[in-house]
Amino acid sequence: MYPSLKNKVSLITGAGAGIGYTLAEALLKAGGKVVLNDISPGLARASAKALDAKYPGRCLPFAGDAGSVAVIDTMLAFTLEEFGTLDFAVANAGLTKFGDFFDFTPEDFQKVLHVNLQGSFFLTQRAAQIMRKHQRGGRVLLMSSVTGIQCFPDLSAYSMTKAALQMMARNLVLALAPYKITINAVAPGATLTERTREEEPDYAGTWSILTPMGRVGTPADVTNTCLFLLSDQASHTTGQTLVVDGGWTAVGRSPKDLEPR
Ligand SMILES: NC(=O)c1ccc[n+]([C@@H]2O[C@H](COP(=O)([O-])OP(=O)(O)OC[C@H]3O[C@@H](n4cnc5c(N)ncnc54)[C@H](O)[C@@H]3O)[C@@H](O)[C@H]2O)c1
């Protein structure tokens, strides 16, 4: 669909499952090379192996905590060593911590900040340093969420970080545009992944009722938007957040919601 994705080297964090995995597969299918990161060494290995079987020699695992700056540096050095360059950095890893505001602990708050903000900020910084040095431009994608736009119960800390990522994408236009590096955020709505399936027994059913488009989102929906933002077709699109939620954030509650169905 996007010929420019061919031969491009990507690093995707939190890609052992869910949206990140689907994006990794799509980029490999488009002819790219991928370093697939996950905090679970078993999952990183197994997922990269499954993709390597389909796209030999173009997908390598890297296990480690994407919130750690030391891990980010080692992961980027590994990418350069193995694939020689870096075109796309995708800060996909995120920690979702539900909890009542009145009981939320400083420990949990720090954990959410560590992965969602520190990880995304320093992956962007370190990846952009490489892209600036190579003088070939580049793409940074941040994984935000609709909860960074609309209130969602028991997700205050998480939502704050997801809103911050949208501002990060806007603010860093100033730093990155001179080097032809674009930075955008994607804000998925309810998306059916291994994790969200566990959150609620009928996740797809519930969200198909709550979503104007009448169905839950899939990792492929989010991936399609990511592919556009990573492609040459999006070379003039930067500082934006693209929402992929079937219209959930577009509508507020209305008096009609009070009527019996
Ligand atoms: N699924 C959704 O409904 C949804 C909605 C909005 C936003 N998002 C965001 O999309 C991103 C991906 O979500 P998902 O639901 O596809 O995946 P997920 O939350 O299930 O996690 C995917 C992978 O990330 C790994 N991971 C977790 N912490 C990590 C860390 N510190 N370092 C490296 N890997 C780590 C996990 O082991 C897992 O295999 C997240 O940032 C999430 O906040 C998801």
Plain-language structure description:
The chain is α/β, with parallel strands linked by helices and 261 residues long. The protein has a seven-stranded parallel sheet, with helices on both faces. The protein has nine helices and seven strands. Helices cover 44% and strands 14% of the residues. The longest helix is centred in the middle third of the chain and has 29 residues, at 106-134. Helix 3 runs parallel beside helix 4 (106-134). It has one domain (3-247): NAD(P)-binding Rossmann-like Domain (Rossmann fold), CATH 3.40.50.720. The protein binds nicotinamide-adenine-dinucleotide. Nicotinamide-adenine-dinucleotide (NAD) is lined by residues 13-14, 16-20, 37-40, 43, 65-67, 92-96, 115, 143, 145, 188, 190-191, 193-196.
Task: List the main descriptive attributes of the protein structure presented here.
alpha/beta; binds nicotinamide-adenine-dinucleotide; 261 residues; Rossmann fold; seven-stranded parallel β-sheet
The count of helical stretches stands at: 9
If strands are numbered along the chain, what order do they take across the biggest sheet? 3-2-1-4-5-6-7
> What is the annotated CATH architecture?
3-Layer(aba) Sandwich
Measured by DSSP, the beta-strand proportion falls in 5-15%
Bound molecules: nicotinamide-adenine-dinucleotide
Low-confidence stretches at least 5 residues in length (pLDDT < 50)?
none
How many distinct domains?
Answer: 1
What class, by secondary structure content? alpha/beta
- CA-based gyration radius: 18 Å
Topology as a string of helices (H) and strands (E): EHEHEHEHEHHEHHHE
Largest sheet: 7 strands, parallel
Top CATH class? Alpha Beta
Instruction: From the 3D structure, determine the CATH topology.
Output: Rossmann fold
Portion in helices: 40-55%
Q: CATH H level: which superfamily?
A: NAD(P)-binding Rossmann-like Domain
Q: Classify the oligomer.
A: single chain
The gross shape turns out to be: globular
